[in-house]
């Protein structure tokens, strides 16, 4: 059959990086005094990555082919300012990778496959396995009963039985297909129904039956080439080049039996695909990703809290939005994510929605063509930002303490018809349309959305996660190549990153922030606060009253030492907490002396470049399944 895809276009991009990769100098943290006035530190962290093969023979996989894809280093960047052509704040972090290839022996493999069979529940093939069987070019038919295997139990089994250090990230490639006891199978997660609607995406939707998972309680992500085929990466489709209809070929990785001379991929391409997954999904999107927004923008001042304020606007006489959100659950998840802050989640209600807000939404949804503040930006997508954030914020969001950081969330409970051209949009965490700094969250719920399973709570946690920094696990940035990519075209396979434990996924199987989210946010905060502390320390030392705050500086130095120690020991939560304490104590000293703190210095307030940056929201994926 015809070969649908080549790696050529990605290889062209890859070849560029050999000439463009930056080399960064980086004072190494250990042994240095933790705080150094006015010194900017790039915290350089060695990141071992284990690449584990379960059920593969070395003859199936040439690790040299995988290694050719893998980066030597990664420096996270703040992505949104880059959309405006600005570099964003230097995050002061550099990761240097080492790779460890591990082939598990037959005894391990046999026990693992027995475990899969033991915990799997037999059932009919999924809708997408049947769709695969109906393809013209499929080289076999998936036959039932297939096993439905709990994903997090497999993650836990592997994290435990592999016995690897937890001071490393691990990707496990699974192949059960060559084992005599093989059963067609998919992975499931069914223990977190939607908190508002009770809808259980994991049990009810074929589209949520997976081939990969990880990051729930470990630094491990597994990807099973013998599972599926499945919906999320559309690897059930072996007939069409362009599965999403955008005019580009969508690069997919089929189940392992399709790596065949007669199949969808060349058998020699299996290890290349493993290299692509390791680099463009595991490393760039899960293990060491870049933030969408600068997490330091959301840092409270000395003694300040983080506050989520939900402005619920009622625009459906038959339903009440406050019935479809749990501020307590929202607060619980943010508190679990960033325990080193005091959190508060509050909600006010505008019932019914006022005329000004209603007009702004009707402009946004294309139901009203009036001129308004959006004209300045030339895009009606800017209307919610300019109306609610620029012009009328005090009307909808109360004023809190000066040291508090407030996440403004505008929620519209409305009817299906009132969504106009935006029907299907769950929400978006907007920027400020000037330099890529986060601004406010806008989110939507309607009877149609609720019938599909979506209330407001999960969307609030997802969009709030963006506002606090996080990218999706299906789009991101490659540092050595300097490319930002969505899960489209050549990177279509990046949708597999959604098969991981995080509310930032579109797959709706958890409302929590997972291990990968926490590791990364804490590293970003640790380096951010320590560099802020260095900057502030110089200002304090220049102040004639410096001697009077010496005790605070000593405390801050002790905390900074602790932060660096914990950062190097992979105790990232403790590192972020200590770095925050170091900075906060210097901020106290600054307030005593009347020295200004750097947290309002958003360096990039420059030229409006708003027509170039993408503005798009989070859609419902697979509304039909
Ligand atoms: Zn999103």
Write the layout of secondary structure elements.
Layout: H1 8-20, E1 43-54, H2 63-67, E2 73-74, H3 79-83, E3 93-103, H4 106-119, E4 121-123, H5 127-133, E5 146-150, H6 151-161, E6 169-174, E7 185-188, H7 201-204, E8 212-214, E9 220-224, H8 270-287, E10 306-315, H9 327-337, E11 343-350, H10 355-364, H11 383-391, H12 393-396, E12 405-414, E13 425-431, E14 438-445, H13 447-452, H14 457-468, E15 476-478, E16 483-485, H15 515-541, H16 550-568, H17 572-593, E17 618-619
Parallel strand pairs: 1-3, 1-6, 5-7, 6-9, 10-11, 10-12, 12-14
Antiparallel strand pairs: 2-3, 4-5, 8-9, 13-14, 13-17, 15-16
The chain binds zinc ion.
Can you walk me through this structure?
The protein has about 625 residues and is an alpha/beta fold. It has 3 domains: about 10-285, no CATH class; about 295-470, Collagenase (Catalytic Domain); about 515-595. Helices cover about 30% and strands about 15% of the residues. It contains 17 helices and 17 strands. A 6-stranded mixed sheet has the order 2-3-1-6-9-8, with helices on both faces. Strands 11-10-12-14-13-17 form a 6-stranded mixed sheet, sandwiched between helices. The chain has a 3-stranded mixed sheet with strand order 4-5-7. β15 and β16 form a beta hairpin. α15 packs parallel to α17. The longest helix has 27 residues, at about 515-540. The protein is globular. The two termini are about 30 Å apart. Zinc ion (ZN) binds near residues 462, 472 and 618.
């Amino acid at each position: 059959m015809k070969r649908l895809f080549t790696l050529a276009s990605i290889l062209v991009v890859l070849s560029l990086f050999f000439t463009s990769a930056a080399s960064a100098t980086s004072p190494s943290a250990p042994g240095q005094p933790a705080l150094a006035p006015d010194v900017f530190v790039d915290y350089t962290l060695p990141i071992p990555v284990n690449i584990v093969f379960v059920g593969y023979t070395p003859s199936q996989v040439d690790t040299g082919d995988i290694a050719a894809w893998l980066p030597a280093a990664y420096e996270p960047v703040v992505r949104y300012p880059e959309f405006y052509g600005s570099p964003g704040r230097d995050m002061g972090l550099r990761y240097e990778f080492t790779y460890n290839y591990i082939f598990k022996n037959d005894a391990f493999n046999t026990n693992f496959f027995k475990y899969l069979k033991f915990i799997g529940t037999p059932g009919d093939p999924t809708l997408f396995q049947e769709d695969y069987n109906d393809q013209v070019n499929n080289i076999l038919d998936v036959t039932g009963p297939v096993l439905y295997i709990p994903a997090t139990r497999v993650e836990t089994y592997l994290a435990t039985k592999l016995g690897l250090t937890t001071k490393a990230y691990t990707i496990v490639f699974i192949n059960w297909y060559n084992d005599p006891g093989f059963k067609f199978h998919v992975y499931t997660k069914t223990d977190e129904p939607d908190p508002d609607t009770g809808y259980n995406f994991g049990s009810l939707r074929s589209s949520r039956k997976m081939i990969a998972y990880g990051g729930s309680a470990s630094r491990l992500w597994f990807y099973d080439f013998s599972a599926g085929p499945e919906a999320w990466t559309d690897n059930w489709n072996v007939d069409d080049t362009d599965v999403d209809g955008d005019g580009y070929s969508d690069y997919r990785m089929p189940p392992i039996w399709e790596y065949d001379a007669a199949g969808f991929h060349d058998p020699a391409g299996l290890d290349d695909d493993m290299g692509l997954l390791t680099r463009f999904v595991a490393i760039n999107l899960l293990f060491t990703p870049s933030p969408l927004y600068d997490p330091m923008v959301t840092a409270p001042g000395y003694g300040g809290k983080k506050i989520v304020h939900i402005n619920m606007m009622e625009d459906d006489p038959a339903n009440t939005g406050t019935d479809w959100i749990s501020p307590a659950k929202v607060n619980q998840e943010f508190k679990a994510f960033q325990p080193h802050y005091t959190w508060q989640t509050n909600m006010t209600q505008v019932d019914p929605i006022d005329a000004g807000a209603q007009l702004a939404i009707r402009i946004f949804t294309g139901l009203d063509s009036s001129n308004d503040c959006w004209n300045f930006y030339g895009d009606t997508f800017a209307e919610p930002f300019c109306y609610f954030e620029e012009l009328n914020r005090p009307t909808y969001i109360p004023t809190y303490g000066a040291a508090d950081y407030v996440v403004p969330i505008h929620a519209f409970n409305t009817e299906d018809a009132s969504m106009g051209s935006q029907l299907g949009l769950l929400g978006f965490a907007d920027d400020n349309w000037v330099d890529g700094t986060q601004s406010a969250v806008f989110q939507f719920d309607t009877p149609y959305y609720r019938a599909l399973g979506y209330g407001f709570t999960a969307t609030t946690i997802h969009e709030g996660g963006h506002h606090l920094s996080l990218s999706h696990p299906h789009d991101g940035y490659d540092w050595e190549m300097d490319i930002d990519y969505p899960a489209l075209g050549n990177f279509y396979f990046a949708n597999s990153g959604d098969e991981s434990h995080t509310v930032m996924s579109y797959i709706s199987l958890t409302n929590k922030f997972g291990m990968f989210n926490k590791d990364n946010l804490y590293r970003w905060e640790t380096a951010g606060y320590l560099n802020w502390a260095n900057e502030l320390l110089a200002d304090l030392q220049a102040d004639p009253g410096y001697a009077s705050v010496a005790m605070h500086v000593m405390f801050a130095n002790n905390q900074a030492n602790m932060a660096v120690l914990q950062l190097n020991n992979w105790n990232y939560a403790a590192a972020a907490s200590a770095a925050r304490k170091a900075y906060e104590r210097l901020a106290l000293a600054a307030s005593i002396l009347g020295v200004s703190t750097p947290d309002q210095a958003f360096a990039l307030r420059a030229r409006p470049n708003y027509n170039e940056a993408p503005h798009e929201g989070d859609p419902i994926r697979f509304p039909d399944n």
